[in-house]
Amino acid sequence: MAKSIIAALSLLTIAAAGQAQVKVDTTIKLDLLQAPVNPAFNILGISNTDIERPTDLTSFSASLQQASNNFTSFPNSYAAQVAPFLLRKDKYSLADFRGQKNAIPQSFLVSLGFTHQGPKGQENVDSLKTTKLGLGLKVSLIRPNWSEHTSALFDTLIQRQQRLKNVYTSVFERMSGQLWKKQDTLSGLERQGDLSDADRATFQRLVVEIGTLTTQLHNAAVQAADSSAAFQSLKNAAASFKSERIGFAVDLNSGFAMNFRQNNFDDAQLYRGGVWITAGFEGGNKRISALALLRYLYHPDTAFAGNVPNGIQYSTFDAGGKLLVPAMEGKFVFNVEAIYRSVLKKNVLDPSWRVVLNTEYDLGLNKKLTFAFGRDFDGTVTKGGNLVAAINFIAGFGSERKISK
């Protein structure tokens, strides 16, 4: 029995030694966040953009938004987004993002938003400020494919990953002469059958020594690989990798928001709920993108910016479009969106509209800065309307991906 246990341990050790030659960690950190994605801000009615561009996700991202007031006060709106299926770093390699197979779990997003401000046009009036919380969900039903440029960069990563593995294997084999001798001795003892007490002690000692030596050789080979030209070449390729998708896209969103009127959690009221679809053509970093929005919203106490008269509850239907024009290889993105809102209950409120000019700047490595200016929805029959003026900072975390499994 004892001999069988020792033999099993030896086989496991030898197998581990053999497999160690190919266990090279090629996890790289990527710049994946193509555009702001925040369904919680959207359902709260404070988003810089209502028509969101399709994008790859990081595991976690955070947003800070400062509304108008000459940008002199602290941010008054915060949001956090989690992609639950991306939290496990080993679940998907970068290769798994290439096709459509895993599009739905990879794009599934849960967003939580918080804001403490007054109604539109009176955001900074302390006596009118209330706390609102929003929960949003987003998933890509159809995801654009990688562009030819991104596919070529990925193929380069695969080639340089293999070069790095070859360096590791070469170094490991060159240094492993002593390891093979110990394994030969161990195999010889195993073939003898019944072992004396002295041979059994030698057998156990060799098992421990082989395990220790395997770890030492692995660490030495990794260190040699990390200092090689192949490793530097892989790092350079990873630094230039940018996820760019081109093609038709369809995203499904939903969410609801609660209003705590007295800033008291015991006085909660449904503020807004809805579902919407964003669809269109994503042009990547060099071509114009065109997107469209269809959205249903339920408004218990507000249809546009003002309070609903007579306690009547409203539902609205929004339809709109957005054009995005990239510049400087996608570093800057200029876009304009227009949305028409109609009230589903007739003869109560006139329709309204929203037009926003938006600029996005890529700060690099999953950080975005956006600025928006335009006219928001307004429930009055004036020609003025409320202005949208907000700056938004987005940072993504958890963008580490193995190149391939």
From TrEMBL:
Lineage: Bacteria, Pseudomonadati, Bacteroidota, Chitinophagia, Chitinophagales
Signal peptide interval: 1-22
Organism: Flaviaesturariibacter aridisoli
Key words, A-Z: Signal
Protein name: DUF5723 domain-containing protein
